[in-house]
Write the structure tokens for this entry.
Amino acid sequence: MTKFDIETVRAMQEAGMVVSVQFGGGFCRPTHVNLTPEQVVTYLEEGLDYVLRLQGIEPAEYEDWQASDGRALCMETLKGGNLCSNQVASQCDLPTRKKMHRNEYCRRHSGG
Ligand SMILES: [Zn+2]
């Protein structure tokens, strides 16, 4: 059982009080997610991870993205076996970084 009162949350939303959770931001535009009363109660119990999963985002992938400041890095493997540390894009939102990180070559390794 939850200690939160779904009826109260429902009444609040019927009165026009929308619950919106914000995440990300800092280096790019934050994402806002509006929650239904049921989602509000689950969010209060489980925290941000729940809202991330609603968006199809794994918490680990979210943390990795935040720690990177939205930087996507080159996919080239160097002679020593390390990956190239050159940046291919910066301040990316999460879907963009997911698409580009270690999936594109930096200027030095693309063609030329
Ligand atoms: Zn590179």
About this structure: The two ends are 62 Å apart (CA to CA). Residues 74, 76, 84, 86, 105-106, 108-109 surround zinc ion (CB under 6 Å). The chain has two domains: 1-67, 69-112.
